[in-house]
Amino acid sequence: MDSVQLRKSVDFFQKALGNSPDLIIRYIKLNDDLQVAVLYMDGLVNSESLHDFIIQPLISLRNIEISPLLQSRRDTLTFLSEEVLCAGEIEIVQDRDAQLTNLLSGQSVILVPGYTESLRINVSGVEERSVTEPLTQTVVRGPMEAFTENFQRNVALIRRKIKDPNLWVDARRIGTVTRTKVALMYISSIASDKVVDEVRRRLDRIQIDGILESGYIEEFIQDRTYTPFPTVYNSERPDVIAAGLLEGKVAILVDGTPFVLLVPALFIHFFQSPEDYAQRFDISTLIRLLRYISFFITLFAPSLYIAVTTFHQEMLPTNLLINLAAQREGVPFPAFIEALLMEITYEILREAGIRMPRTVGQAVSIVGTLVIGQAAVQAGIISAVMVIIVSITAISSYVMPSGSMSISVRMLRFLFMGLAASLGIFGIFAGILGLLFHLCKLRSFGVPYMTPLAPFISQDQKDTLFRYPWPRMKTRPALIGDKNKIRQKPDQ
Prior knowledge:
- By secondary structure, the chain is of the alpha+beta class.
- It is 46% helix and 12% strand.
- The chain has 16 helices and 12 strands.
- The chain has helices spanning 2-16, 47-60, 67-72, 76-84, 96-104, 151-159, 193-204, 214-221, 238-246, 281-310, 318-327, 335-355, 358-378, 384-397, 403-423, 425-441, and strands at 23-29, 35-41, 90-93, 107-111, 118-122, 167-174, 180-187, 233-235, 250-254, 260-263, 443-444, 447-448.
- It has a 5-stranded antiparallel β-sheet, with helices on both faces. A 5-stranded antiparallel β-sheet has the order 6-7-9-10-8, sandwiched between helices.
- Helix 10 (281-310) packs parallel to helix 15, helix 12 runs antiparallel to helix 13 and helix 12 packs antiparallel against helix 15.
- The chain is elongated, with a radius of gyration of 30 Å.
- The chain starts with a helix and ends in a 44-residue tail after the last strand.
């Protein structure tokens, strides 16, 4: 009778998985009357751990008389989990759907006849990428490690930096099909309860069949969908996420991706680099100011050139104006079309360099830019000064440490080029006013996006445009870490 019940339980898993060949079923007799089934997915478990922690201990029970032992215990599942199996993570699971999810997550499931519950043993061992250097957020000085696609390892990388019991992890599964593990991570003694509750509410509201990357989560939880500016920060560096947690922010980890989300995200955060806090404050301040200058160059350089050469030639010195006129004498297009052609060409080359094989991608992008620019100037399609403007704009876009903000500026650059071609300098100023109004209206999880510039918070200016020395940054950002604002103890 027991064997019939066991077969029915095994049949449930086989039918649920469509008799998939990678479902491995191992029947083990503990004695003449008791047989158990060990289920696991081939390729998702560690074979050595499975043998040492599950198979071998169960087989060893054949050499002893276990009937008296079972009679003196509450049940077989408790006996196996507490006194037989050697794995570090064992749990009794009742729900069948949860048992299936565990099985597909690299766990092993032990079925015992007469029980609807099962034992879940963590023996997962999927082949994964080791910890390597960051690819998108490189630094000269600072930690050289990046997140991986493994959820547990990413949590461990953060815990290595913050050894505080108040660092809490709240995990859930999102996606009716993928059942992706998503967790929010925060320091309970620092993070705002309102922000944490709001993050939970937005995550629990997500109803989708699959989550394959943190970008899915980002689009669901961001405050405004129709804005070019990112309101959720992402990073592949554990030190950046740890620094954000220490300021009172909330991290969102998604299994299967090396990019961790951080909220609230403010405008100034996308111009800060982890290297700013590993170097002297004066060097960091200079580099940060260069980033803001690069932001304005990337956004306004082509549009200012179009406006000045089309509508406001009187703003240029006479000698420079004569040189520009001489260069543009044979160019058949107006400045706007000329700039648009060059900008689109460069964006194509940039994307081609990313998508092409690494062995030829960099060479193609560099050679293509040089050859096309040189040939276009010689053919009289564009002027030489336009090549200079586009080159400076492209180089400046790489100075910003955040790729998401860099992409936003590249998009807005085309808008300002159109305004400059239509209304000149007045169009650019109208666009700046509209942009400022839009930025001041944005919020990230209840925090104004332009904080601490608008609203202006004087004590938070120590780490905005400039970076003060560490001994002078005694408080956390006012609107983020409102529960515990003191970062350093006052001088004795």
